[in-house]
Automatic annotation (TrEMBL):
This is DNA-binding transcriptional regulator, XRE-family HTH domain. The keyword Transcription regulation applies. GO terms for cellular component: cytosol. Residues 11-65 form the HTH cro/C1-type domain. GO terms for molecular function: DNA binding; DNA-binding transcription factor activity.
Length: 69
C-alpha cells in the first residue's frame, strides 16, 4: 500500500466533499497550494503537524484522515 497516495486521496475526497478548493484549503491551513496538490497526488510525505493543520482547516477529525483501508 502506498500510504502517501492513500492519504492524498483521502484529503482530496474530504476537501471536495466540503466544497473547498485547493487554494482555499492552502490559505486556511497556512500552506502553499502546490503543496496541497502534491499531497493529494501522493508526492509528499507529510508530518503529523501538517496532517493536523489540514484536518483543522477542513473541520475534520484527525482519525478521518488516518482511517485508510
Amino acid at each position: 500500500m502506498d500510504v502517501k497516495a492513500e492519504y492524498g486521496k483521502k484529503v482530496r475526497e474530504i476537501r471536495k466533499g466540503r466544497g473547498v478548493s485547493q487554494e482555499s484549503l492552502a490559505d486556511l491551513a497556512g500552506l502553499d497550494r502546490t503543496y496541497i496538490s502534491d499531497i493529494e497526488n501522493g508526492k509528499r510525505n507529510v508530518s503529523i503537524e501538517t496532517i493536523f493543520k489540514i484536518a483543522k482547516a477542513l473541520d475534520t477529525r484527525l482519525i478521518d484522515f488516518l482511517n485508510i483501508d
